[in-house]
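Dear support,

I submitted the protein below through the web form. The confirmation email said the job was done, but the results page showed an empty box. After a refresh the structure appeared. I'm attaching both so you can tell me whether what I see now is the final result or a partial one.
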Amino acid sequence: MQVDREKCLALLGSGGIGRVVYTAGALPAAQPVAYVLDAGEVLFGTPVAGELAEATRNAVVAFEIDQIDCGSGAGWTVLGIGETYDVTDPGRVGALAERTPAGFSAIGGRVVALPLARLTGRWIQVR
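What the results page shows now:
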């Protein structure tokens, strides 16, 4: 069963850990990141250099989160797709620092924003 955009945003708004899905050497790759939802965009920190940093420089990537209850087998999944950009406004970066989850760090690094041009979700039942 599909989840509408509004509910997808609400599920993303719970924050925490999600996966950035990108291309590395012509192959799919995914890396977990701590993130926050801000103004309808997923924001996460990366180092200045490295595979994830290079893969998220003005690039189209996907972002995925999910939650499944192991007891009941019920849960949901949300997938967003968009083109990343660096957040450079000091005011926005400072405001984010006050409300980001543990593990979200742009100290000595970058804050990457992913506007959610495409956002889909669905309720799942594993059993």
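Response: this is the final, complete result; the empty box was a page-load delay. Helices lie at 5-12, 51-55, 90-97.
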